[in-house]
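Feature request, filed as a ticket because there's no other form

It would be nice if the structure record came with a short human-readable summary line next to the tokens. Right now we just get the raw output. Example of a typical job, pasted below so the devs can see what we mean:
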Amino acid sequence: MSSLLHSCLVILVAVCTTSFAPVTCQDSTEDYRQAIAFNTSLLSENERSVIDTCARIFVRGVHASPQLKDCFDISDLPPVKFSFHVHKHFVLKAVDDLGASDFEYIADFATRPMAQNFDVFYGKYVLRVYANVLPAFLYDQGILTEDNVESLCTEYLTNMDNSCQTTVVPGDTRSKFQAITDGFEQTLDSNINLTRTQLWELSNHYQFQWTLTAVDFGTKSHLYNKCIRESQGYTEENSDSDSDTSSSGCDSSSSESDSSSSESDSSSSESDSSSSESDSSSSESDSSSSDSDSSDSNSS
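Raw output as currently delivered:
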């Protein structure tokens, strides 16, 4: 029996060592290689003054025209609608104009922060992005300078105004999408012939402006916290319930405090009563002492 068991054990070990190949983890360096790599640098106050001047010209012009200002208000449609629209335009420019094979990466990189960081696109958000993204990109390309900032940014404002007047249909917010992108692209195309690399750079500027706007206005934190709560099953009802529980706890604590105070008062009352009884006992003792003295006097 012992030899049979030994033979089975030897066979099992032999099968395990010969029939199953060892598993090894092989890391692929391609998994860690990003689609693009780029450098970033912060502009000094003096360097960014040209961009700020252009943005100021554009914003003032928009606020001076009620129709143009309304063109940037797309708050009645979900942000994902405008995000899809812009995504399509980046794809078309990458494919039709440049024949870029990585068009999907370019478009996704540009638009991903939009719907993720906003639950509504108010006019001030959209205006801020478009007032800064084109000047920043053209300055980065060496096209926007102190010498042409007035003329170039006035051209941008005029193109956007004309686009909104000719494209926007009253009551149709989607027509505002087209008006905004048309005014932007018309100014872009008249000042630069984009290469694939420059389209990537524009994509980076575009996504950065949306992310920075979300951070500055605090919308990113709001949606991030909301997402975390929902993923953990934490709803507004739970929040109210926790608040009520907390309030109830406070009330209970207050009740216990009042009860403790009442007991303290009762204890104090008992102490006073005890003191009173002690005084009464002392009085009786004095009275007895007085009677004793009187008796001694009579005896004398």
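Something like this underneath would help us a lot:
The CA atoms of residues 29 and 240 lie 49 Å apart.
Residues 8-21, 241-257, 259-264, 266-300 have pLDDT under 50 and may be disordered.
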